[in-house]
Design brief:
heterodimer; A: 119 residues; mainly beta; seven-stranded mixed sheet; four-stranded antiparallel sheet; 11 strands; globular; B: 110 residues; six-stranded mixed sheet
Chain lengths: 119, 110
Amino acid sequence: DAGVTQSPTHLIKTRGQQVTLRCSPKSGHDTVSWYQQALGQGPQFIFQYYEEEERQRGNFPDRFSGHQFPNYSSELNVNALLLGDSALYLCASSSAGGGTGGTPSYEQYFGPGTRLTVT
Amino acid sequence: GQNIDQPTEMTATEGAIVQINCTYQTSGFNGLFWYQQHAGEAPTFLSYNVLDGLEEKGRFSSFLSRSKGYSYLLLKELQMKDSASYLCAVYQGGANNLFFGTGTRLTVIP
């Protein structure tokens, strides 16, 4: 049973460039959430996708956009990169239909993350 | 406003017991999660509480008091591999997302 996968693992970009990060959810999951985790901080919610639509959004500017495909995989796009966008970007998947072991449907399984460095 | 408070760092001895506290003030509450995160890795699920009381799972236990906006994670028989960050996160009903604290970095020493 494949878990959540993300690509690439590491990425170095220059200020002002654009970047696309990819995520494949855990098998059987249909919901994908994206988080940004700066060094020494907890993850911050960017947005969530379900049924190919953005269902909820955190406090991030429009430079951050996303997409979900029919196979439930997702992309995170960031335009006009700033130095402050350097962080670990985590993708988490969940099942709207319910979790396992008594945990709620919103139990989120995290991928290994993409480490983005903006120079 | 929304806020989750956890101690920034803790140190404990191998074989001992440690309690990591978390207090929260959030707009909406539909459960509290604890995650473990080793340096450079993804968070992994440890526990979930939605009702008041203690949930025990092996060496790890988690407690919740909704009226006090308080939770703790208890780690028993500490092992060196327990050195990691421990993240407290609130699931906000209707918001469909986890609101995380900054995490507590636990160092286990011999």
